[in-house]
Amino acid sequence: MRRKIADPWYKSARWIALREAVLRRDRYLCQDALRYGRRVGAETVHHVFPRNEFPEWEWAPWNLIALSNQAHDAMHDRGTGALSKKGVELLRRTARKFGMEVPMRYRE
Questions:
Q1: In which domain, by residue range, is 79 found?
Q2: According to DSSP H, which parts of 1-108 are helical?
Q3: CB 18, CB 64: distance < 8 Å
Q4: CA gap 56, 52 in Å, rounded
Q5: What average pLDDT does this structure show over 74-100?
Q6: Is residue 18 part of a domain?
Q7: Tally of structural domains, the chain
């Protein structure tokens, strides 16, 4: 099995600072679990609109959410790297929240 090479972007000082700001903003709590009234610690910051598809929003705090590792894994199909159904639902909710149009490929 080949190991995935880590993206050096995630080692940048700018990302590390932004990641910490988002975790602090979200009180180090998984925002997905909070939707269901559960308090679970967050270790990961997720790009709601994936940065490889929407590089113009890779630094936007509104596009970032604190998640537990388990919740983050549920947002992606780890085989393909594509957003899972749950990830697409979050993308749609976020677009609606900020008055944005849902990108065509993520419409129902």
A1: 28-106
A2: 13-25, 31-35, 69-74, 85-97
A3: yes
A4: 10
A5: 94
A6: no
A7: 1
Tokens at 1, concatenated: 């099995």
Return the exposure string of 72-84: e unless at least 16 CB atoms fall within 10 Å of the residue's CB, then b. bebbbeeeeeebe
Query: 21 lies in a domain?
Result: no
17 strand-pairing partners: none
> What mean pLDDT comes out for the span 47-74?
97
At residue 95, the 3 state secondary structure works out as helix
Global pTM reads 0.90
Hunting for tokens 């630094």 — which residue is that?
59
Q: What are phi and psi of 46, to 5 degrees?
A: -105, 135
Position 86 confidence tier, pLDDT thresholds 50, 70, 90: very high
